[in-house]
Amino acid sequence: MRPTRWTGSAAVVAAVLGIIGLFFDAPAAAGASVGLGALLCGGGVLFLYRMIRFTDTLAVEREVGDGLVCQGESVEIGVRVTAGAAPGLSVTITDLPPRSAVHNPEETVLVGGEGRYRVRLMAPGEVFFQGLRVEVKDRFFTTTLFCTAPRFAGTMLTVYPIGGGRQDQGPGFGAGDLELEQKWVLRGQGIRAFRPFRSGDDPALMDWKLSAKYSRFFVREPTSQVGGAPLLVVDLPVAGAEGGEAMLIAASEAIGRVIRDYGHCTLLVVAEDEVAGFWYHEQDLSALVRHLRPRPADAAFPLYRVYDPLVLRQRFRAAERGVTEPSRRFAAALHATLATLAPSAFEEEVGQVLAGIEHSAVVVYTAATGEVGHLNMIAVAARRHGRTLKVLLPRPGPGLLARLSGYARVEVL
């Protein structure tokens, strides 16, 4: 609970009256000071009581799109919150999507207890909404509550992956098996994703279980229908960065080429160590290009550098061979670092994207004018998932190649 300006002004007046009553022997001023203080304390207790009564009556209902929710696809969320009366209180309620969701925070603010917004869920599997963020205030006090209980988070939401299909050994796979007359396209092929049935689809691709569950027809998309387009990753440059505009132009041209050659493009946009957006098999060039714009400069700077684990291991072996005391201390520090090395949140998000797509090649467009730790995280995730990595930049700065992962192939635009 935080005081407002009115509370601060009233506290100052009470303090001044108390000083006047104490030093000038003025009972009226002292009594007014005590009364004003008691009024503030009573107002605080009343505020807490009203706030607790209001939060106890909160109830939330959510509607998540129509049909299946697939990784990286835009989904519309409808939210309706009901609550009892809150006399004397001003309430602002914000819905909290799952942690893996990419969304606009301004759209999640509910107006009149209702709202609709769109999100992209990056992590496949079972996810939950975080709950509600409730801001309550009156003339003298204000507070922010995070309602994360199960009744505010709602039911579990299943996000289906867009890649990483399973491989089944169908009839005719082993030697000696007889060839069947009917072609089973779902046997011996991985299933990349599910989508609603469209006129002209092969009935053999129909998924009857999902169709019965959602009362709509759904078909499966085998991995054999997937093209060889690369995954494009664009690292948004800081506004005014050297080579940033040239890099964005080159990335836009690459997106256009991929759409022209393959009919769609998969794009991952990052802003240093944050995922700014992910679009899977997008066919609209303008819908992708409009997201490629310089980002404002951030006053904060990382206090660490991220190196490729292979580089750290090489340094560890070199330090172990040292005979001086500093070398042994450096080896001990590297040993402790490698023993507790864990992927960061950004690396996990990139890994989830790579695990859910079929693209075997990853192409990164970056200006590389600042810290390149996030590029090393992308390289580690790409190597872990068996993808080839190529980094394209306008011009390598001094010492840049030494700080980049040796796994990536670096080229100049």
Pattern of helices and strands: EHHEEEEEEEEEHEEHEEHEEHHHHEHEHE
Q: What is Rg?
A: 29 Å
Structural class: alpha/beta
Q: Tell me the strand percentage band.
A: 15-25%
Percent in helix: 25-40%
Biggest sheet strand line-up: 16-15-14-17-18-19
Query: What's the CATH topology name of the largest domain?
Result: Rossmann fold
Low-confidence stretches: 163-190, 223-227
What does the overall shape look like?
extended
**Can you tell me the CATH architecture of the largest domain?**
3-Layer(aba) Sandwich
N-to-C span: 54 Å
**Integer average pLDDT:** 76
Question: How many separate domains?
Answer: 4
According to DSSP, the number of beta strands is 19
CATH class of the largest domain: Alpha Beta
Structure description:
- The chain is of the alpha/beta class and 413 residues long.
- It has 4 domains: 2-55; 59-160, Immunoglobulin-like; 191-222, no CATH class; 231-306 and 344-412, Rossmann fold.
- Helix content is 33%, strand content 25%.
- Strands 16-15-14-17-18-19 form a 6-stranded mixed sheet, sandwiched between helices. It has a 4-stranded antiparallel sheet with strand order 1-10-9-5. A 4-stranded antiparallel sheet has the order 2-4-7-6.
- The longest helix has 30 residues, at 27-56.
- It is extended, with a radius of gyration of 29 Å.
- The protein starts with a strand and ends with a strand.
